[in-house]
Sequence to fold (459 residues):
Amino acid sequence: MIFYSVLFVSSFILALIIRLNRFVFHSLSEDSVALVDKLLSNEEEEKKLQQVQKGTNKLVLSLLKTLLVIILSLVLGAIPVFFHCLLSHTQFDDLIFNSFLSILMISVGATVPFVIPLGKKVKSEGYNELSKLLHRMSLNNYHISNRLFKWETKKIERKGLVKRTDFVIISGLARAGTTSLMNNLAQIDAFVSLSYANMPFLLCPNLWGKFYKPKKTDLKERSHKDGIMIGLNSNEALEEYFFKVKANDSFISDTYLSEYSISNETYNDYLEYQTIIKNNNDKIYLAKNNNFILRYKSVRELNEDFLMIILYREPLTHATSLLEKHREYKKIQKEDTFVLEYMNWLGHHEFGMGQKTFLFRNSEQNNNVDKESLDYWLKIWINYYRYILTIKHQNTILINYESYCNNPKGIISTILDKIHVDSELPDYNTYINNREIIDGISDSLKEEALIIYKQLNNY
Fold:
């Protein structure tokens, strides 16, 4: 019986060391996939070779660390068996490891370390450690994502689906009601949009859909704490990852998201991507993308048909809401760094530790103002919506947030009329916002913002 207890302790020690050092194995997985990603790069040979060499060195280091952990766990796990042989004067060859009780004790001992809690655990909503690893392996490797997209494109071309140009984009500065409008439109059968079910393989949703079919679960309030309920099949602003991959993040700096022009090739790939998402000739592609404004003008030059819906909100309450969410997300991201990773992957730089401002051509930089001040967020509002006033087009419509809250059915009916979609609408709940405005706003900024707000109402 003592021998079986020894086997339990030995396997427990071995498994415990592996669990405590599990992130070494995670790094090995990430570095392996990252090296493959670098090998698929289209960079110039010299630059590609340098990247591959760095990736190889990193992978070798991860492999050495992994081997060290395995050797350490085997050595420490063997110590109880060694002392048992020493104290009982038993030869190692005489020990029986293949009996039922031996296998049972080894199995139980190796399982216990993986089920008992070890220290304080940061739990991301709906994401365990393996899920986080899968997200990192998928979303950090743009070249692999692009290859999967090309593979999916070839598959969809064989179906004979057509690329439609009458898609719908909902945009605006964050906290302007864009998510609510997207969710209400997405419930209409004519539309198809990306959802959480497409994560993390956003550029090959049909392939991923063969392996991952989330069941409908209870809805939970999203992390914004704004009353919007989400589940595994809820629609979300996820298409920005496509543009990040195509541009290789070239429009993203440490401080700004810069306006830029997409190429004809990227535009055609974008239409292909929409076709992949819809997988149906009769559906209209719908997306919420607050960053779409960065490439709006170049897309509009290539496409007069798509509908751009931009929501705007009374500037003082809007700036107050942005500051409030900025503070909340800074706290959340400090407690759980995966939230910051997740938002960066999807290009969500609206607030929090990864917050960045929009840098339009000829716009003023806004990096000398304290982000904890309301003036900073009011400047962001002024910069964004002053630019919006320069993009008038018959298929670009502006919607007042307050008007949408008071009459959502009327606003949605107007949108459907614009794109010639006939659908019976439910009686949506109206919403009254009684947000209290924080003090400390510059009078000059307040006056400038209110002038722009008046112009938006007269757009």
User: Anything to note?
Assistant: The longest strand covers residues 307-312. The chain has a mean pLDDT of 90. The two ends are 84 Å apart (CA to CA).
